[in-house]
Write a structure and sequence with these properties.
Layout (H helix, E strand, L loop, with lengths): L8 H6 L13 H12 L54 H14 E4 L7 H12 L14 E4 L4 H7 L1 H8 L3 H4 L13 H16 L4 E6 L8 E12 L2 E7 L8 E6 L4 E4 L8 E7 L7
Parallel strand pairs: 1-2
Antiparallel strand pairs: 3-4, 3-8, 4-5, 5-6, 6-7, 7-8
Helix pairs in contact: 4-6, 5-6
């Protein structure tokens, strides 16, 4: 059952209020430090019922369409809020995983017919891919970094999970980067409408787009990185599909409502649904 198409879904699902939430403008001086703590969660809040996602239109580029379960990592990013009673050894990597997925899609080629290599070599190959600029155009097949022994990223990361995670390195550089300070800014409706058009253009060009989605500093806020790879039109609105590192087997629905010129998401296992703000990640060397 799909979440109703309404921007006030968060308040109604949490039983807090029956009307739509009024966006609150955060105070940047007071919230700057809080933004770091917010990013450390990747996503937070008690788990409500999960929402469903509909089918989407695949990109029209020459490269094969991005697909969850093939072009994504097999292991999840751990949400600390969901594991309060035990250590979360692999948490807060949502930004790293989103960047890594788009880099493998743009710059790597898998060769299942080639013999497997050592974990050390797989770690080295993964680092080579991750060191490339995520905003560069996809490489032609002949130029791509070859990963032998596996048919795709999902199979590779499932079999060589330790080597792939070792190549990720520390999570802190991605969490405190200046790109992320935009979570305390209030994106205008014009900005969000322009972003929706930009996402459509990127998907049509065969370039999945890393996206930060946030409802910070709302109660039960969502602060998370996903990778938009497909969309479909639903009436006047747009329904984007995104790879979600927190739930690697299920695409996340990110919806745009042109009436309110705002994005909203369905409920997920790690946070409530409702209105969000969004901005692109790794669209350029600065942003």
């Amino acid at each position: 059952m799909e979440t109703p198409h309404r921007p006030d879904a968060r308040g109604r699902e949490r039983g807090q209020r029956s009307g739509p939430r009024r966006p609150r403008r955060p105070s940047p001086p007071a919230l700057l430090l809080l933004a770091v703590l917010a990013l450390a969660a990747c996503a937070a809040g008690p788990p409500p019922p999960a929402g469903a996602t509909g089918a989407a239109r695949a990109p029209a580029g020459a490269q094969r369409a991005f697909r969850v379960g093939r072009d994504t990592f097999a292991f999840p990013n751990i949400v600390r809020a969901n594991t309060p009673d035990r250590p979360a050894g692999f948490a807060n990597y949502c930004i790293v995983m989103v960047r890594g997925a788009t880099e493998f899609y743009r710059f790597a080629r898998f060769a299942p017919e080639a013999p497997p290599v050592s974990d050390a070599e797989y770690e080295r190959l993964t680092r080579r891919v991750l060191d490339l600029p995520a905003w560069d155009a996809p490489w032609p097949e002949a130029r791509r970094i070859v990963v032998p022994g596996y048919p795709d990223l999902h199979a590779f990361s499932r079999a060589r999970e330790a080597a792939v995670k070792a190549a990720f390195g520390p999570r802190w550089p991605s969490m405190v980067h200046w790109r992320n300070w935009r979570v305390v800014w209030w994106q205008s409706g014009a900005h969000q409408a322009g972003l929706a058009r930009e996402l459509v253009d990127e998907v049509d060009a065969g370039r999945p787009a890393p996206l930060m989605i946030t409802s910070f500093p709302e109660y039960d806020y969502l602060n998370h990185a996903v990778l938009v790879y497909a969309y479909r039109r639903s009436g006047a609105g747009l329904e984007f599909e995104a790879y979600d590192p927190n739930d690697p087997d299920n695409p996340l629905g990110v919806h745009f409502d042109p009436g309110s010129r705002s994005f909203w998401v369905e409920a997920v296992p790690y946070g409530p649904g409702g209105r969000i703000r969004a901005f692109r990640l790794f669209g350029s060397p600065l942003l």
